[in-house]
Automatic annotation (TrEMBL):
Superkingdom of the source species: Bacteria
Record-given protein name: Alpha-ketoglutarate-dependent dioxygenase AlkB
Entry's Gene Ontology molecular function annotations: dioxygenase activity
Originating organism: Streptomyces gossypii
Statement: the UniProt record of this protein carries the keyword Oxidoreductase: yes
Length: 210
């Protein structure tokens, strides 16, 4: 189902087995060279989600290879198999066997939401590429607020994102405001191995080179 041009929601795209494998990987990445952390914002705020990055380290509002804002370490690499999952996501979402061609996501941002975590309305503008963003959700459901490209307010559409859901943001939706106003505690599937909270992986092409 498509709430806007280029935006496609595919409920239940990941199998429970794939979700469990991703949860295991995320646990390892969360304790990797740059551990899961609450991102500090330049004006003194702290994000309520906890994030770990692969390939490039995102800090507001730029991508770096080393995490000066955490511990100065080099981020873990973006695995080739995860980029491949992103290509398969585009093929399935756009129902076009060629949709993944040239899609080589070089970063993954992994956000962990506890019951209280939220993400305010924002645009993702730090990439130098208009390639689609692939979003994978695991664990508790959330309300995902999908807005417009003009401002953080209305008009917007609220969509429920559940465990296993794929969302692809391409075309004009790539630069739409979006956020997560609430998580729904206790709605996850224990078979994924995630006992509480919500995990979201976004795969992106940064358009950056070293
Ligand atoms: C629409 N993450 O990491 S995923 C983010 O669930 C982010 O953790 C949310 O927003 C989360 O920046 C939402 C869906 C998403 C991700 C990136 C987008 C939607 C997007 C980029 C452009 C447009
Ligand atoms: Fe975002």
């Amino acid at each position: 189902t498509s709430p806007a041009p280029g935006a496609v929601h595919v409920p239940g795209w990941l199998t429970v087995g794939e979700q469990r494998e991703l949860v295991d990987c995320c646990r390892a990445w969360a304790t990797g060279p740059v551990p899961l952390r609450h991102t500090r914002l330049p004006r003194g705020g702290v994000m309520s989600v906890r994030t770990v990055c692969l390939g490039w380290h995102w800090q507001p509002y730029r991508y770096t290879r080393t995490a000066e804002d955490v511990n100065g370490s080099q981020v873990a690499p973006m695995p080739g198999w995860l980029a491949g999952l992103g290509r398969r996501a585009l093929v399935d979402a756009y129902e076009d066997t060629t949709a993944g061609e040239g899609y080589v996501p070089d970063t993954a941002l992994i956000n962990f939401y506890d019951d209280q975590a939220r993400m305010g309305m924002h645009q993702d503008k730090d990439e130098r590429s208009a390639a689609p963003v692939v979003s994978l959700s695991i664990g508790d459901s959330c309300v995902f607020r999908f807005g417009n490209t003009e401002n953080r307010g209305q008009p917007y559409t609220d969509v429920e994102l559940a465990s296993g859901d794929l969302f692809v943001f391409g075309g004009s939706s790539r630069f739409a405001y979006h956020g997560v106003p609430r998580v729904r505690p206790g709605t996850g599937d224990p078979r994924t191995g995630l006992r509480a909270g919500r995990l979201n992986l976004t795969l992106r092409m940064t358009g950056l080179t070293d």
